[in-house]
Amino acid sequence: MAIKMTKAEKKVQYDRKLVRLLDEYSKVLVATADNVGSNQMQGIRKGLRGDSVVLMGKNTLIRRCIKIHAEKSGNSDYLHILPLLVGNVGLIFTKGDLKEVSEEVAKYKVGAPARVGLVAPIDVVVPPGNTGLDPSQTSFFQVLNIPTKINKGTVEIITPVELIKKGDKVGSSEAALLAKLGIRPFSYGLVITSVYDSGSVFTPEVLDLTEEDLIVKFSAGVSIVASLSLALSYPTLAAAPHMFVNAYKNVLAIAIETEYSYSHADKVKEYLKDPTKFAVVAPVGVADTGSSVAPASAPEEEEKEEPAEESDDDMGFSLFD
């Protein structure tokens, strides 16, 4: 026979478990658990078993345990989690990859019907087609202004209709109609809202960033730093190459406009005086084999053939004689 524990004993046991998790894990996913059933939660725990532990509980109790543990251990990093404990939330302690764990959690979503008074998390659209309902059920569609027609003794929806908009509360007529049509428009599961990693807290969107995204964002940041540094004439590592190039351009411009010169400026001045000296003559009529000798030898062969034709004329006959 199992011995029932008192509330005080349960709190002490919960505190020990939470302290053990805080000491053992450095990464935590904060997730909302609205409309998540016990069977669904059991499936999530089973799927994360191994590297992760799901801990649910009252927010006040979790806050109290974290504060006391931070005071005793001197580690105040976990205090960053306290502002995130709002609403029906749970903590997922993990040693695995944060992105893989969040993707695994997202797999465990269960379809749910539209209950009266529930705030719709998405838009609900009723698709066109045969509903299988008899003509006596047309009153539901008329109340909701859904165009229908009778086809082969059943009600058929003519066009798709946006029944419920995201953020609106589900009414009794909408809930009854969706139940009759067998539509379960909503799906619920643990939703990751925040991520804690070794004292840092960030949104779950950060987990979706790729290396290419990070490179683009880093390049944009370096560009901004370089622009500010150039505008303020303040040397930084990002702006130094641009400053050297601009300084060299200024020195070269002064050398060109004055009699002062140096080796690199001499070349530029010489080019400005006579650009034709630096023109490169491209080879003309290069053969397919890549040799440039063939085109040069062609005129010589033609010149050699001309005397032969003259000698034939001197002999006084042609090939057709």
TrEMBL record:
Domain Large ribosomal subunit protein uL10-like insertion: 114-183
GO biological process entries: cytoplasmic translation; ribosomal large subunit assembly
Domain of life: Eukaryota
Keyword match Transmembrane: no
Stored CDD domains: Ribosomal_P0_L10e (cd05795)
Alphabetic keyword roster: Ribonucleoprotein, Ribosomal protein
Pfam families cross-referenced by the UniProt entry: Ribosomal_60s (PF00428), Ribosomal_L10 (PF00466), RL10P_insert (PF17777)
UniProt feature, compositional bias: Acidic residues: 299-315
One cellular-component annotation, GO: cytosolic large ribosomal subunit
GO molecular function terms attached to this record: large ribosomal subunit rRNA binding; structural constituent of ribosome
Protein function: Ribosomal protein P0 is the functional equivalent of E.coli protein L10.
Family the UniProt entry places it in: Belongs to the universal ribosomal protein uL10 family.
Protein name: 60S acidic ribosomal protein P0
